[in-house]
Recover the amino acids of this structure.
């Protein structure tokens, strides 16, 4: 099917970026959040991102204005989903929350609309069980920040139809993204790999073998990574990293068990860049404070 309009459910860390990417690709986009305040913050993040891209010469002011004009904020999920060709769920990584969203979307979306999840870990087959037509459900895992990261990981559930998969591939490519495809399995490709690396990096620090800075520097300079694993989990959120770890343990056992350091940081509210403290400390603009650990 041809996709003309996209609904993004969730305007948080990932949702607002996905909405911006979709609008930049020429789609009419509706962004849905549960309350006006959260929605306004997400729209504000899009505005700041567009201004940065204009300042860097990556967009003209005219192009930025066109992108703004394609994005509509909406607090009613029913109104947001009603006419969309593709609905992308980008809410918190909590299975109960996702189930609630999928069941609501199933009530309000068109029967032929495709429902994609930005989940980084949950089974697409499990999510598809919450709707009446599981063949139109697919995983569409973006990376943070979606505006800059080139990859989309596409996950086929057990019942994902060929048409659904082909449509999601076409949309991803129109957004200018590279794709990888994975069969449905807890954590897919990327979450399993980054979780294993990040958890071991935390253990190295916890054991006093090296500082967080040196662990990240070793991965950047020795292994060619764009970001170190500890910098990465600070960006995505330590709360998310812990949730993913706990779910991977259920599927694969103790090799994904979180170290005590991660649990303690989350308990203390030091969940990364979005909180100002995580593995490292950050200023109000989200920039890392040099030489300071969280």
């Amino acid at each position: 099917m041809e996709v003309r309009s996209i609904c993004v459910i969730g305007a948080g860390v990932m949702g607002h970026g996905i909405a911006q990417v979709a609008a930049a690709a020429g789609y009419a986009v509706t962004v849905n959040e549960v309350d006006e305040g959260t929605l306004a913050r997400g729209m504000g993040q899009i505005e700041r991102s567009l201004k940065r891209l204009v300042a860097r010469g990556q967009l003209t002011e005219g192009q930025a204005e066109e992108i703004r004009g394609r994005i509509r904020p909406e607090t009613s999920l029913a109104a947001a989903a009603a006419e969309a060709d593709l609905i992308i769920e980008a809410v918190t990584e909590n299975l109960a929350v996702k189930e609630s969203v999928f069941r609501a979307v199933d009530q309000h979306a068109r029967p032929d609309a495709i429902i994609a999840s930005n989940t980084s870990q949950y089974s697409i087959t499990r999510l598809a069980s919450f709707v009446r037509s599981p063949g139109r459900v697919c995983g569409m895992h973006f990376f943070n920040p979606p505006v800059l990261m080139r990859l989309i990981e596409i996950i086929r559930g057990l019942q994902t139809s060929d048409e659904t998969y082909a449509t999601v591939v076409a949309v991803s490519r129109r957004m200018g993204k590279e794709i990888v495809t994975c069969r449905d399995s807890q954590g897919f490709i990327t979450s399993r790999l980054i979780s294993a690396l990040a958890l071991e990096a935390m253990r190295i620090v916890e054991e006093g073998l090296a500082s967080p800075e040196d662990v990240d520097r070793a991965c950047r300079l020795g292994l060619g990574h764009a970001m170190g694993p500890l910098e990465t989990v600070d960006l995505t959120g330590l709360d998310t990293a812990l949730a993913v770890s706990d779910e991977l343990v259920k599927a694969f056992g103790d090799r994904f068990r979180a170290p005590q350091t991660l649990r303690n940081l989350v308990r203390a509210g030091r969940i990364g860049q979005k909180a100002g403290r995580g593995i490292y400390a950050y200023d109000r603009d989200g920039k890392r404070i040099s030489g300071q650990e969280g």
Remarks:
- The two ends are 48 Å apart (CA to CA).
